[in-house]
Design a protein that fits this description.
7 helices; 5 strands; about 170 residues; DNA polymerase, domain 1; binds FE2/S2 (inorganic) cluster; alpha+beta; single chain; 2 domains; about 40% helix; Ubiquitin-like (UB roll)
Length: about 170
């Protein structure tokens, strides 16, 4: 039995400790917002946060996440009030949408660690998230707008705070 915290709730999973977190999320816990792309840590579709840091859940064994705080796309506010969600909507970022939960989780982690990233910082943080539809220009514009909105409104980027407020 592996115990961890998933989107602010304590979870126990009865599974092989070698099972990748992505499998447990999708097949055992019905958390299907996190996507399977490559399975080898090369595309970013499966990105979630572990203790606030973005990780590739397709290569993260359950044994490694015991006792950790895991946040998935479902941990963002259900009313889309997080600045990154707002910016994604304003810029109509998704095309097919498949990569987008991973993109959003990487962008949220970036702004939590660096609320005012320059182009190089955005490229560096987002380079592991592949989008076959080529939404990269909209992703970058949305991240910049979210950062600008926060700097002018003093909105708190903290996902933990926002997630705690969600219904
Ligand atoms: S599915 Fe995990 S990085 Fe591609
Ligand atoms: S929106 Fe289609 S893969 Fe990114």
């Amino acid at each position: 039995m592996i115990s961890f915290t998933l989107n602010d709730k304590p979870i126990k999973v009865d599974a092989d400790p070698k099972m990748p977190l992505l499998w447990a999320l999708r097949d055992l816990l019905d958390m299907t917002g996190t996507k399977y792309g490559c399975g080898i840590a090369q595309c970013g579709a499966c990105t979630v946060h572990m203790d606030g840091t973005p990780i590739r859940s397709c290569v993260m064994p359950l044994a490694t996440i015991a006792g950790k705080n895991i946040t998935t796309i479902e941990g963002l506010p259900s009313d889309a009030s997080h600045p990154i969600q707002q910016a994604w909507l304003e810029h109509n970022v998704p095309q097919c949408g498949y990569c987008q939960s991973g993109q959003i989780m990487s962008a949220v982690a970036l702004l939590e660690s660096n609320p005012n990233p320059d182009d190089a910082a955005i490229d560096d943080a987002m380079q592991g998230n592949i989008c076959r539809c080529g939404t990269y220009p909209r992703i970058k514009a949305a991240i910049k707008d979210a950062a600008k909105n926060v700097s002018t409104t003093n909105v708190d980027f903290s996902l933990a705070k926002n997630a705690g407020e969600k219904a």
